[in-house]
Amino acid sequence: MQRHLPRAFGLVAGASLLFLYAPILVLGVFSFNSGRLFHRWEGGSLHWYAKALANEGFRGAAVNSLAVALGATLLATFLATGAVIGLHRAGARQQGIALALIGLPLVVPEVVMAVATLIFFSLLRGATGLDFGLGNLILAHAAFCLPFAMMPIRAALRGVEPAILTVAADLYASEGAIVRHILLPLLAPGIGSGAALAFITSFDDFAMSQLLAGPGQTTLPVFIWAQLRRPLTPEVNAMSAIMLAVSAAFICLALAMVARARFTNGPCDP
Amino acid sequence: MRTPILVLAGLSAILLSTPALAEGRLHIFNWGEYTSPELIAKFEAAHDVRVTVDEYDSNETMLARVRGGNSGYDIVVPGDYAVQVMIAQGLLEETRPDQMPNFRHVEERFIDVSWDPGRRYTAPWTHGLTGFAVNTDAYKGPADSIALLFDPPEALRGRIAMLDDMVSIIHAAERYVGVPRCTADRAELKQVRDALMKARPFWRTYSVDSINKLVSGEADVAQTWSGSAVVVRQQLPGVKFVFTREVMEGFSDNVAVLKGAPNPENARLFQNFVMDPENAALTSEFAGYANAIKGSGAFLSDALKTAPELDLPQDVAMEFVPPCPAEVMEVYSAIWTELRR
After folding, report:
1. Are B54 and A37 within 8 A, CB to CB?
2. Could you tell me if A199 and A142 are in contact, meaning their C-beta atoms sit under 8 angstroms apart?
3. For residue B92, what are the β-bridge partners?
4. Which H/E stretch holds residue B88?
5. B55 touching A, CB under 8 A?
6. Which residues touch B236 (CB under 8 Å, ≥6 apart)?
7. pLDDT, tens digit, for every residue of B141-186?
8. Percent share of chain A, pLDDT over 70
9. In whole angstroms, what is the distance from residue B141 CA to residue B220 CA?
């Protein structure tokens, strides 16, 4: 039995991976098509990559997407780390309420969040003239990235041996010192994966950005979507492939950071 | 732990380098792939204005963004019925394009339009037809009636890609069964509903990119816009945009200035700018649609001048359909929900 289970498992896993990645593979392959039609292979070429990179709208949208995702990731990860450490000592009831509030974006349909945020910023601008520019988008993204960033950090906290904190306190380590020298290093892998999750959530977001982006703030998914109205060329494949590569690069970076943290923390890890 | 600080520094550099509000700006919100970069460069040079262009995929998306006010945009390009809705809701600035210098170039039949009589709010941008295209390499039979969508020959059943567009599909059904647009008559609406439900199994997809299904070979008939057919035909000569015996659905997009626009003066300049024949030709050339500006034909390329999709034959009729009354729209929604279930 034990010998058969892994083989069946491998088969199912392989089929699942194929199911998940085959469309992306096709997209990637056809981005190198030299013809003008996105489904008809006419030979390999980097023509559409050159065209995509020369497209001012695409470049602008890419810069916007990266800026928003980085800003939202930093903000969300910072707040999520603070919330996890802070809530650590709160009572079960307070924890429950706080987590439900922070986790709201996971439950509320994204369109509803987006419309509400749109109205909020519109009223704010009308009443006070305040407009944070791209900051509007960063704040909105940070709000719904927060629960995503928080999940891995909370999981990491659950893995921390309480005795270590008790020992530190017994040895007269101050609150700040405990957080800085013990808690943060132990949570680092969680923080890293939380940041990666937040980044991807923001980078891929469509509904929120489509409603909220102001003049000159179009992000990549919104830009690519607006292209669909016209007959597609492999340029859209090239744009999507570039977007995918960036996402993948950031995930690898985060994973590498996590792996390193795990390695350095190794002996401490319970 | 130094990395976040570096990233933060980089980020603030990006944010600060996105230009502060200078004088001479214009924020345009237009349909996707509809704004000629050449046209924008020319306007920027002529008036010393920096222009941003953002894009949307439907009138409804655009309305959702600007309805709350303070969207930050100056110019939007709503379709005919959307203009009517926006004027009624007080979303547009009455900029009087009819008194602008270039207004003399506008074709007479595009002045007293139902959605903006006398052009007190909007300047014409482009117009085209919502119809369907056939891949004549795959289907050799006759194509001159909207019946091809509703009662297709055996070979085309399940090979038809529709737009994801409730109003244009139901209007198409009204033309097929021969009842007036926006009819409120229950018996007629029942006929429309039955025609749609009968056609339902023949329709493969409903999407904004229906023309791409034709390109990929997933479909042989696609409900689409004439300009999309122009672009695709240049690569697949077998694609033919069909002129039907039944009256065809026209659409017209219009340059409008939003109420409360941050740069109203530049927005007015832009409205006047697009009514110049040479500039209108730039738009047509890029988008593949006809414009309403007399004399712009002289500036068009031969490929576009001779495009059959843009040259409406004498015996083909075209209509612009105003928005239907609310009670009819309710029935439409019910029919649409049933169709898409």
Report:
1. no
2. no
3. B258
4. helix B80-88
5. yes
6. A37, B135, B137, B214, B215
7. 999 999 999 999 999 999 999 999 999 999 999 999 999 999 999 9
8. 93
9. 12
Give the pTM. 0.81
Q: Please name the residue that has the structure tokens 């482009």.
A: B126
Q: Does B237 contact A at CB distance below 8 Å? A: no
Alpha-carbon span B323 to B326, nearest angstrom: 9
Q: Do B232 and A231 touch (CB under 8 A)?
A: yes
**Cβ–Cβ pairs < 8 A, chains A and B:** 103
The answer to whether the beta carbons of residues A219 and A61 sit under 8 Å apart is yes
Q: Is B72 on the interface with A (CB under 8 A)?
A: yes
Per domain, the residue ranges of chain B are 5-127+251-305, 129-248+312-339
Q: Tokens at residue B168, please?
A: 């244009």
B216 CB contacts (<8 Å, ≥6 apart)?
A: A38, A39
With beta carbons less than 8 A apart as the criterion, state whether A238 and A227 touch. Answer: no
Task: Say if A39 is an interface residue toward chain B (CB within 8 Å).
Answer: yes
B5-127+251-305 and B129-248+312-339 agree in CATH topology: yes
The residue behind tokens 């297709």 is B152
CATH number for domain B129-248+312-339, candidates 3.10.20.340, 2.60.40.3600, 3.40.190.10, 3.40.50.720: 3.40.190.10
Verify whether the Cβ–Cβ distance B53 to A57 is below 8 Å: yes
| Residue written as token pair 């795990």 | A262
> Under CATH, which number does the domain B5-127+251-305 receive?
3.40.190.10
Nearest to B70 among A37, A125, A231 (CB): A125
